[in-house]
Records
---
Amino acid sequence: MGKWGLSRDPVIPVPWLTTAKTEYGRNKVLLRPGKGLMDWIKISTNKSLASQRLPSVTAEELIKHNKENDCWILLFGNVYDVTKYLEYHPGGIPELMRAAGTDASDLFNQYHAWVNYQNMLKACIVGPFRGSASKLPRAKDAILDNPSLKPSVPVSTILTMDSFALW
Ligand code: HEM
């Protein structure tokens, strides 16, 4: 299994297999079995899933954690270690990785300001950000906004009952 989906090649995600546009033009990702919201709630409730708990986090520290196996993001004043959450993110790993090691607040609001991240990421809290936000790199451009990777067919044409038929 590749790190972003069904491909064995970890470099290129396979959007035509793992994502599709809804009728409203939003990217949906097919989460793997056992990686839904209820599963996340089960593994994260009353746990600490952050690699560290710090009294405060500087920009220099946050920037270091920008990899898929060590991914911290700043969200509205607090830093979260979302490494364990990545596979459960309904928008997909690459979307969330755009903000790895930086301030995710604007992107987060842009996509889903209504999502209750405070509750969902309780287990992932590292600590309050006490650094200079201007030292942080900007979030990466949207991978799925890249026209060469953009799926152009609606989800209904990708997943039909035939997809589950035995041949
Ligand atoms: C900051 C970088 C992030 C980006 C670029 C991003 C992007 C996206 C995208 C493209 C979707 C699919 C939109 C759709 O449902 O049609 C999505 C869904 C979602 N994301 Fe994120 N996301 C980010 C961070 C987060 C974080 C930190 C959380 C916190 C728990 C989160 C939770 C969710 C949830 C719950 C959904 C499903 C929303 C729904 O179905 O209405 N995301 N995200």
---
Amino acid sequence: MTEAYCGSFDGIHSPSAHLTSRYQDVASDTIPHDYEDPLLIADLRKPANLRVQYLAAIHRLGTGALALSLWVIPFLKCAVYVVGRYSQRRTVQEGAGGKRVPIISFRTQQLPILHCLAQIAVMDAFADWATDQHSNNKALHPGIKHGLAVILKAVFLQNGQASLANLIERSGAQGMYPHNQMAAFESLTRATGIAEGEVLVLSIRLATEVLLGRYSIPEATQPGCFLAQHEKGIISDLRETNKMISNHRNDEYNRHVLPHLRPMVIAIGQRMAYEAALNAGVDKDLLALYEAGAIKSDSVWYSEHLGIGRADQSQKECEALDAVLPRLDEHLESLGIEPYCTAPMLSSDRWKGIVDAVPTLTGNGEATFPGAENMDSKL
Ligand SMILES: Cc1cc2nc3c(=O)[nH]c(=O)nc-3n(C[C@H](O)[C@H](O)[C@H](O)COP(=O)(O)OP(=O)(O)OC[C@H]3O[C@@H](n4cnc5c(N)ncnc54)[C@H](O)[C@@H]3O)c2cc1C
């Protein structure tokens, strides 16, 4: 590699902005000369225990995983605000000759918007709790401290990826335009799953250590709630499977346990997030909707183990949606994100600004076809 392609400090080379492109502010490739991290001035002799040394060397990953995951909250706030407002102003005709109705009147449009609002409320509370534990709870075992970051990351990734994909899809063609911000949020959320430790690999390590009993994560404070029962059931099933497998590095563990470890971490996180929101006094309708969404994410388990069938789950979700919907405006406004939303799809004036800014090509051709007089933009 030449200097043109590398950042360098004191003879150490790392990929420069050319390689890391727009994510270079995340993948920081410069380290100040006066940075006295013991890692950089560590003893170069081979350590007695390579694994312990390696884990010590990367211990800051937990902090990075926690910190980086937090930006999923403003991504979701911005996306839901933009799609929520768009869905209120975009109208379609109800049948031939019918009146025009905003698309927010359709339950299919309400679903991703209202679920996202519920997730944001709960994630905000979970973030406050987890960052406080991480920074201020000196009694926390280092493994658990790292574990909390992994748990938060897994839950934020799941909510972020699912909600952004659904919000983008429900925005039609508008969701594709880079100007409308959401495609960038989706890409950055994906990056969050990889940077500071790939989320699946982090989950595998944490869940395996919990199953092996190396340490325990903070237990449920509301053991009777649905999400706590789910967490307990998932972990105890995996513990049973694990008992029959002699070694967590063998092929059986690979085939039978590995695929269930990320869902296990998410189950723990959903319960923790719910409790954090309950303790923080999050709006009860939003909390009920979050719970309904979490149940939906592992619908079959609740049906098999708690006897809550599809119809009951659907009814619970429907009631929670009905309770949140009348306060949609209030919930959107309370996000406080509008000043940060640059998406032109937010209003017809902004969209007109984009249309007016593109070059106009003129000619003298004439095209006419039935309905040509009613060619209002669908966008
Ligand atoms: C925005 C961004 C910023 C970054 N910044 C930095 C930085 O500042 N410093 C730095 O050192 N690195 C940085 N990285 C690199 C990052 O840490 C790695 O990309 C990440 O750890 C994943 O490694 P990989 O890309 O080699 O993927 P791989 O390890 O090749 O993973 C590919 C797939 O294999 C799976 N896999 C890998 N190992 C296992 C396993 N043991 N068991 C099961 N499945 C497995 C993964 O789940 C994944 O699906 C950054 C990455 C991104 C995206």
---
Amino acid sequence: MPSPVVSVGGGGVGGFCFLPLPPAFSMSTENGNLKISKSSEKDSGPNQSVRGYDLIDAAKKALAAANCASTVSCADIITLATRDAVALAGGPTYTVPTGRRDGLVSNVDDVNLPGPSLSISEAFAFFKAKGLTLNEMVTLLGAHTVGVAHCGFFQDRLADFQGTGKPDPTMDPGLAARLLRTCGTASRPLNRDPTVFLDQGTNFIVDNQFYNQTIFKKGIMQIDQELALDRSTAPLVRSFAKNENLFRQSFVKAMIKMSQIQVLTGKAGEIRRNCRVVNPRK
Ligand code: HEM
């Protein structure tokens, strides 16, 4: 059981984390926000597909039964659940500091996640602003070794890419044709917005295959594919693709670092009783 409030602690998950629903993972936001009101972080575009809220609720309920609901924050629950989900999916095991507190606001405007069609340098600006290095960005995007993306996030690559009348030339033509059948085109999308695996090789395993896929032009989202093409990131992608251990070690370090960004500790924030809403003000 994590200690109530320690002086340091990993924290507001710094922008992303997994919510564990092995083997499905999700992206989430800062400070353990699981609020469901219309204008909450959970409702922002990039987070609309986050899954696993029920699991976080269940963990909180179990803590309440043990009289710990006001001791363990939602931010810690999410961070620990993320750690466990990585291990359950065959990824590395690691320990993360606890002691985070939850945010007092949950605001859609606070969610600032980069889009999937950004260039490497544009995406890196976002990571740098959080104190993360380029190598750490390449490592963390390796989290796309699991989970899915909705067609809407990469459909523009499948046909008439940037007005060329053709698919994105950096995508394997066979893959583009297959995805086109699943997704339809950006101008004529299918009614529902289906999902496809982000790692076309070993989607349910946290491993280095994601990097191999990008080398074979099988990155689903443009940003993933760019990792293997951009001069600043390609060498590390090749190293990770060749050396699974190197990736695992790097992933552990980067995940721990990310979990310590923008942490609330001490008297800051609160320990939410219900992870979906801030505590009612007295
Ligand atoms: C430039 C940075 C990033 C961009 C642009 C990005 C973008 C996206 C997008 C658009 C999706 C698809 C969401 C959907 O269709 O529902 C996604 C999925 C995912 N992302 Fe990221 N992401 C980034 C970084 C990260 C990081 C740092 C992590 C974790 C360390 C991460 C973990 C995941 C996971 C696990 C999924 C699968 C979600 C699921 O199956 O529900 N991403 N990402």
